[in-house]
Amino acid sequence: MKVTLINTSDAGGGAPAACMRLLKALELKQVDVHMQVQEKKTGEPRVDSISDNFAARLKAKFNFFYERLPFIWFKAKAREVRFAFSTADIGTDIKKEPDIQNADLLHLHWTNSGFLSIHNIQQLFETGKPVVWTLHDMWAFTGGCHYSGDCFHFMKDCGNCWMLRDPHKNDLSHTGWKRKMKMYKPVKNIVFVTCSHWLADIARTSSLLKDFRIETIPNPIDTEVFSPRDKIAARLKWNIDPKSKIILFGAANILDRRKGITYLVEALNDLKKNYQDTDTIEIVLFGKNKSFDINQLPFKVYEMNIITSQQDMAALYNLADLYVTPAIEDNLPNTVMESLACGTPVVAFNTGGLPDMVDHQQNGYLAEFKSAADFAAGIKFILNSTRKDELSANARKKVMDNFTNEIVASKYMDVYRSILRK
């Protein structure tokens, strides 16, 4: 069985991390697996890049800016949606790449940012090879947005998109929806995989995917790298007081609209105002931060910026008393799984794919959606719990029972076999 995973890059975000973890998980099962990317950022020998020379790298840059800049300048309604909508109107034809030619099965992941256009994806479908497409967001069944917010136009035909400056019936989102409808016409043997049950349920209501087979398989995680370790040693590594109560929060971009940092600010101020014994609470932040003022947070803050090492990330989870994710839209965030794998409970809103990982008051706390007051209550619940060892053990068990390399790779191999037999 020769499988080629296809993703824009092999590092630098949630989808690349999940895709690389799947590559490693399949390798452990002796699958002949390779990964085709636009930009290679790691030294992994099974990853092959189309940008392997100066001209190709220049083309990749051109594609990115050609797709992104016109949307930002002329189409995007507001700053916060500049990267929330992908037109996929330019890309690279990769159907003749060796990894594509030699594969028995093609496994698509996240292919935006100028890597594959809608036409390029259609070209892969037209090869006749079986296809698995893991959805890391909603883009595959919308007119262009990655997360639709409160909009459900994708259930019919898209149009009147709230992300656009000039929304109307035949706007950019509607033309994108029509191009995808055409893209799916040559598909004969495909399975869509969502990382969460939430995304699967939504995909089944979409006009584009409702007639296709949709399965739910979570992302895998290396439970040796992300594992419980000595909390005091982890804190000493980062010069953090062992006696403090540490709340950890992070994201690739902490100001991403979906990540909900405004709710975190509100919740922490609620915590400070309405609860006792908060003097020893401190906050650890990681991820890109261009303009968020940490003085909005009512506790001492340690800024770690962008963390690229998995070992360093594991140390951060281990030094924390809990990890918080006030996300208002998310699929199956790697950060939550990583925290649980390290035995660190999680507080999250009850939305998206979060309930697939967080069991209320068992390994964390699921707060009422968009309720900063209940989010604060969840933080207090974890920090003051008399069952801390139980919460930690449950967190680790959740991952070991559902998200290990062995479990996830086996589920994907079952899907692969089912479509290779057709």
Lay out the secondary structure.
Elements: E1 2-6, H1 14-28, E2 32-37, E3 47-49, H2 54-75, H3 98-101, E4 105-108, H4 118-125, E5 131-135, H5 172-184, E6 190-194, H6 197-203, E7 213-216, H7 231-237, E8 245-253, H8 261-274, E9 281-288, E10 300-303, H9 310-319, E11 322-325, H10 334-341, E12 346-349, E13 364-367, H11 372-383, H12 388-402, H13 405-420
Parallel strand pairs: 1-2, 1-4, 2-3, 4-5, 5-6, 6-7, 8-9, 8-11, 9-10, 11-12, 12-13
Mean pLDDT across all residues, rounded?
A: 95
Task: Please report which band the strand proportion falls in: under 5%, 5-15%, 15-25%, 25-35%, 35-45% or over 45%.
Answer: 15-25%
Biggest pleated-sheet summary: 7 strands, parallel
Overall SS class: alpha/beta
Measured between the Cα atoms of the first and last residue, the distance is 14 Å
Walkthrough of the structure:
The protein is α/β, with parallel strands linked by helices and 422 residues long. Helices cover 36% and strands 15% of the residues. It has 13 helices and 13 strands. The strands form 2 sheets. It has a 7-stranded parallel beta sheet. Helix 4 (118-125) links the parallel strand 4 (105-108) and strand 5. Helix 1 (14-28) crosses helix 13 (405-420). It is globular.
